Amino acid sequence: MTSFNIERLPFNKDAVSVWADADSRHKNWPVVYTIEGTDEIYIGESTNVANRMKQHLDAGTRSHLKTIKVILDDSFNKSVCLDLESQLIRYLAADSKYKVLNGNHGITDADYYDRDRYRETFNELFDELLKEGVFTRSIPDIVNSDLFKFSPFKALNTDQSVAIEGVLEKLFEDLENKTDSPIVIQGDPGTGKTIVAVYLMKLLVDIAKSAPDEQLDSDSMFSDFFQEGFREQLKDFTIGLVIPQQSLRKSIEKVFAKTPGLSKSMVLSPFDAGASKEHYDLLIVDESHRLGQRSNQPSAAQNKKFTDINVALFGNDDLSWTQLDWIRAKSSHQLYLLDSAQSVKPADLPAEVTAGLVAQARESKSYFHLASQMRVAGGSDYIEFIGRVFAGTQQGPESFGNYELRLFDDLAEMRQAIFEKDKEVGLSRMIAGYAWPWVSKNNPSAVDIQIDGLGLMWNQTLVDWVSSPTSLEEVGCIHTVQGYDLNYAGVIIGPDLSYDLMAKKIVFHRENYHDKKGKENNPRLGIEYSDEDLLNYVVNIYRVLLTRGIKGTFVYVCDPALRSYLSKLLN
Predict the structure, then answer these.
(1) Burial of 1 from C-beta contacts in 10 A (0-12 / 13-18 / 19+)
(2) Do 172 and 245 belong together in one domain?
(3) Where are the extended beta strands (E) located within 222-305?
């Protein structure tokens, strides 16, 4: 039986004054409240909600909002209210009805006594709010959405919090001293690099726009940055978030369009940044390892644009200029988030360039490392295990708790298992290495992948494929899933890889690898890529694919010898 009740009143001084005296808990009890308008909402918690409402009304910044909801429960305490407030902010920010007016610095995920029992009450409350139309989707639907996964309203883990605090300290130090130290955050797949980038964008905007006398609802490790001196340094401060991958960039644009203080114009491609007429105070580059060096671009227009940007920025079209140089030229300060092991094609920045960035950041004490695994339930042990499997150094199978890692001998059986998992928990998809031509790109009725009598099609869209209506029936490639989460990933390891029984190592087959840009030589720079060079990129691709699944990863292997090798390790 529910123990909470929701009290409703108009958001005006007369209504609040009358309501304040109606119950002693209105002035002295921990509660959570919302203030709602037509398409905006503010969520807060307070132990004196009547006084807090008067503060909101006196400030006038939310005077356009209309209705108050106060959630009361005799069993609530401060920790419970902080938790409920944080969850409401996270879920409402990812739902489609309201823009959430809160800052993101107060989101918490701290444990407390009897938390599981309280969260059962939260679920009943969310159901009630869904019935009232405050939410438009169920919580499971919200949690599986890109708006939730890439929302700036996240409860950070310790690694992420420490990194963001360090970035802020270094940035404000450089602003005060008029110096520039490139900042680097490095982390394995699933450590939340994109989350950090998006969170930091929102936090900086909130600091810049904060009022000197603004009262924050809750403390956080970032509250000091809202004090005098910091907001002044961010006056007229321009920030951009550069994302090389088109699909991920479009998903982040949707999040920014829905978040007060952010706009989708702040999300840039490397070409957008290089050609911009604006000089940015700070450019944050997600997936920095995917920035490009000079190479043959996907289109003649982009080849010309590369030349035009080089000439505009540097006065010449020296082939040594890279998109990293564009970022440096177009901004006073830079933050790079990277994992060089996720570089998936020769046109990406060379490993020695990203290694130089890391070395420079370490020297200037502006390097931060993310170690905690946020995506895969198997944790960092699973990520490291996959690395050892492809390196040939893993000696036997390992267990990863409740994480499901299964090797299938029958592709149809694996596909059916993915269908069942999608019905059960949603967001389960088939993905594969680029080991078959994309015939259906020009012939929508064509079959791309034929295995054991089963015909499958590649992804029919490059943008937000994971959430597209037909994605469950299709197979995604590296360009549609890098940077994304899945609940279950069904990974097909194609004939681009096999296992050499004599040499006891994994071998690459160029003739079975069909990403033209993924194996193209670079005559502009006089570089030819050997099979060993390309093997490293393809292994990186499969490492990315095998680390998309939050709850589990299913694997089918085309090459019999490679399947036999992996069967000794994956089951």
Answers:
(1) exposed
(2) yes
(3) 239-242, 267-268, 280-285
Residue 208 CA to residue 229 CA, distance in Å, equals 10
Alpha carbons 447 and 94: distance in angstroms, whole number: 36
Residue 449 and residue 319 share a domain: no
Residues 497 and 548 in one domain: yes
Residue 153 lies in a domain: no
∠ CA 89-94-97, nearest 5°, is 95
State the average pLDDT for the chain. Answer: 94
The answer to whether 125 touches 97, Cβ cutoff 8 Å, is no
Q: Are residues 445 and 564 in the same domain?
A: yes
Query: What is the arithmetic mean of pLDDT over 164-187?
Result: 95
Reading the block at residue 123, the tokens are 């679920």
pLDDT (tens digit per residue) in 444-503: 889 999 998 999 999 999 888 999 999 999 999 999 999 999 999 999 999 999 999 999
Residue pair 56/9 in contact (Cβ under 8 Å)? The answer is: no
Could you tell me the residue range of the domain that residue 350 belongs to?
158-370
Q: Is residue 70 part of a domain?
A: yes
Do 269 and 352 fall within a single domain?
yes
Are the C-beta atoms of residues 431 and 475 closer than 8 Å to each other?
A: yes
Give which of 269, 335, 336 is closest to 297, Cα–Cα: 269
Closest to 319 measured CA to CA, from 328, 311, 327: 311
Please indicate, yes or no, whether residues 207 and 120 belong to a single structural domain of this protein: no
Torsion angle, CA of 472/478/481/483, rounded to 10 degrees? Answer: 170
What pTM, to 2 d.p., does this model score?
0.92
**Average pLDDT, integer, range 502-525:** 94
Q: Cα(184)–Cα(372) distance, rounded to whole angstroms?
A: 17
Q: Which of 268, 264, 274 is nearest to 327 (CA)?
A: 274
Question: In whole angstroms, what is the distance from residue 338 CA to residue 244 CA?
Answer: 12
Query: 150 lies in a domain?
Result: no
Rounded Cα–Cα distance for residues 524 and 295 (Å): 6
Q: Name the one residue in this structure whose structure tokens are 């356009």.
A: 64
Burial of 198 (0-12, 13-18, 19+ CB in 10 A): buried
Number of domains in the chain: 3
User: Of how many residues is the chain composed?
Assistant: 571
Q: Over the stretch 208-217, which tens digit does the pLDDT of each residue have?
A: 998 776 665 5
SS3 75: coil
Looking at residue 215, what is its pLDDT?
61
Domain assignment present for residue 81? The answer is yes
- Burial level of 318, CB count in 10 A (0-12/13-18/19+)? exposed
Confidence of residue 1 (pLDDT cuts 50, 70, 90): very low
Instruction: Give residue 190's Cα distance to chain centre.
Output: 9
CATH code, domain with 184 = 3.40.50
